[in-house]
Amino acid sequence: MGEALVEKILASHLASGHLVPGEEIAISVDQTLTQDATGTLVYLELEAMGIEKIATELSVSYVDHNTLQTGCESADDHIYLKTVAAKYGVYFSPPGNGICHQVHLERFGVPGKTLLGSDSHTPTAGALGMLAIGAGGVDVALAMAGRPFSFFMPEIIRVTLLGRLSPWVAAKDVILEVLRRLSVTGGVGKILEYGGSGIKGLSVPERSTIANMGAELGATSSIFPSDEQTRRFLSIQGRERDWTLLEADGDAHYNEELSIDLDQLEPLVALPHSPDNVRMVKGLEGVKVDQVVIGSCTNSSYQDLVRVAEALKDKRVHPEVSLAIVPGSRQVLQMLAQKGKLTHLVASGARVLESACGPCIGMGQAPQSGGVTLRTFNRNFRGRSGTADAEIYLSSPETAVASALTGEITDPRSLGEEVKVTWPRRSWVGVDMIIPPTAHPEKAQVIRGPAIQPLPEFAAMPQKVQGEVLIKVRDDITTDDILPAGTKVLPLRSNIPAITEFTFAGLDPSFPSRARERDGGIIVAGANYGQGSSREHAALAPRYLGVKAVVALSFARIHLANLINFGVIPLLFSSGQDYGRIDEGDYVVIQLDELRKEVALWNESKGITINLSLHHLRPRDIAILRAGGVLNLVRNGSAQRPPGQ
Ligand code: MIC
Ligand code: SF4
After folding, report:
1. Which CATH superfamily includes the segment(s) 464-635?
2. Domains 268-415 and 464-635 share a fold
3. Which of 103, 175, 185, 532 is nearest to 376 (CA)?
4. Closest Cα partner for 499 from 519, 524, 482?
5. Which end of the chain is less crowded, N or C, counting CB atoms within 10 A of the terminal residue's CB?
6. CATH code linked to domain 5-264
7. Does the CB atom of residue 361 touch ligand 1 within 6 A?
């Protein structure tokens, strides 16, 4: 039987295990990426583990999240990242160059290679036929040191795209349709492999929109074949030499199949407050919008913004709407300028922002209170815009620009004839905008401003966890709920004691003080706990406050790894009924001397025992937990590499 594309790439990188869904495998990692909001921890972790040298083919450190610089903290982070990149032989992309995923597509992605990134949207590079996976910072640090990355072999879903998108229907509508069908948990433990005659008409930037939002399905990754479209994109980037033809065998076997007829697709919108709350634009016309923002790693390519610019040409943004446009990279901005498109944006009344994550991560452009904001982003979790009671809708750039012109959600097909985007033969690339590794890393001086605090040290796992249930939360809690981003909190990403004060800020601001008063405790959660971002802070901050275990109905993949890496014990309820038998404020005792499959939780307040399971833990996870976290394990030297790696 033939192989799927994912299997081919995994087989050529396999360090251990068998490609059987559910089995633990480890793969070698060719490239890594970090961004500033998670990256400072990655480099602090490398330093804390005493790792001296980078063993990947290529590692890049991007600065794209914390670029507002409202105080000295972010600038301190940037200088630390720049100098530590020189020490480790890492490429450094300074602020202003653009969003890591967009720049990685332009400058570094190579079909057939593996990429591990400390950002959940790393799979964006799947648009180039790479196997790209998001992970917690420690896992990226270990990969940079040359350790294979281990995970459970996912199932592979084949998504067959047929036909052609109708005018003004966009790649974003394809992924919103997938989200509508599969939901935010439909991709858990899976990789989506796209194919079918319909992909021929999709450019790499369009594919990247689709691969990007696979993260919102909870998928491990998403991938497209490397074909003529890929060759063309790489050639425009002056990198045709990086191209190879890569595709699945015709008789490959998949664990699941899904088919989408592109001709039948209509413009779609995700309603507040979840990316899978998808409806047709048609039924929503008339919903008034106060703000429209076009950008983010999902939709900020040259192709996206040319369409937007042409739609805005000689027109004026609706007077009741604030339209912000965030080009994904310096290259995109420069190309818009060169081709005379920038002028249409500026003259329409749009606010053109620096190439960065910006409003997507709540760094500026928070809407008015109770405002309706329509964004081309990937996440519309409550509060993520920076305004707690704002309503965030997600759409394609086409729907967004049509709505910015009318002041209400509008079908882009009302814009008239479709805009055909002509690509330049060669894009401006600004090669010297990214600082390559220095020839003399030994001379590099790492500069640490006062904002860079050393990582806290944690004790080994206790025999018994006892304490109060500090908080009980519902299903689908995001890492934004656990540790928000935004202008106040993001600059503190390198200072764990300071950022900890914001733990669960949106749900229960008294959490940090209560946790401290009670000397820690446990967290109880519903299903899909920790969905969304890869930020390790969502595990580190509760740990710093003394949280020793999280008991949930299920966990999101990256957050589960982060909890383990920082020594927080993840335990599973066996049923929703058991979730109902424990309340906030209950005093519980969990005996952990033997980490067997089953662990008993004694709910002292209610006088009942609840059986919890640990079934997802591998021997290496147990070793990490026993040591009190992966840093202790590596530092102690008891295992230079965690077992299983
Ligand atoms: C996000 O989109 O939430 C982020 C900010 O890019 C995160 C990383 C982070 O929290 O720094 C992600 O998606 O992993
Ligand atoms: Fe940046 Fe938003 Fe993309 Fe995260 S989702 S990497 S914050 S643009």
Report:
1. Aconitase, domain 4 (3.20.19.10)
2. no
3. 175
4. 482
5. N
6. 3.30.499.10
7. yes
In this model, does residue 644 exceed pLDDT 60?
Answer: no
Kindly report the length of the chain: 645
Closest CA to 273 of 171, 388, 170: 388
- Both structure tokens of 361: 């991560």
Residue 296: nearest ligand to its CA? 2
| Per CATH, domain 268-415 is 3.30.499.10 | yes
For ligand 1, say whether the CB of 119 is within 6 Å of any of its atoms.
yes
Q: Which residues line ligand 2 (CB under 6 A)?
A: 65, 99, 119, 121, 296-297, 357, 360-361, 378
Mutational test site, ligand 2, from 121, 378, 489, 531, max ligand atoms within 8 Å of CB: 121
- pLDDT band for position 31 (cuts 50, 70, 90): very high
pLDDT tens digit sequence for 69-79: 999 999 999 99
DSSP state of 436: P
119 C-alpha vs ligand 1 centroid, how far in Å? 6
pLDDT tens profile 437-471:
999 999 999 999 998 999 999 999 999 999 999 99
Q: Between these two residues, 598 and 500, which has the higher pLDDT value?
A: 500
What's residue 642's pLDDT? 42
Whole-number pLDDT of residue 203: 98
Q: Which residues contact 613 (CB under 8 A, 6 or more apart)?
A: 571, 572, 574, 597, 598, 599
What are the boundaries of each domain within the chain? 5-264, 268-415, 464-635
User: Please, what is the average pLDDT of the chain?
Assistant: 96
Half-sphere CA count of 280, side-chain side, radius 13 A: 6
Task: Check residue 71 and give left, alpha or beta (phi > 0: left; psi -120 to 50: alpha).
Answer: beta
Residues 571-611 pLDDT 10s: 999 999 999 999 999 999 999 877 777 899 999 999 999 99
Minimum CA distance residue for ligand 2 atom 3 = 297
Burial of 189 by CB count in 10 Å (0-12 exposed, 13-18 middle, 19+ buried)?
middle
HSE (CB half, 13 Å, CA atoms) of 623? 17
Q: How far apart are CA 384 and CA 289, in angstroms?
A: 17
The count of C-alpha atoms lying within 13 angstroms of the C-alpha of 251, restricted to the half-sphere facing its C-beta, is: 2
Grade residue 640 by pLDDT with cuts at 50, 70 and 90.
very low
Q: pTM higher than 0.70, yes or no? A: yes
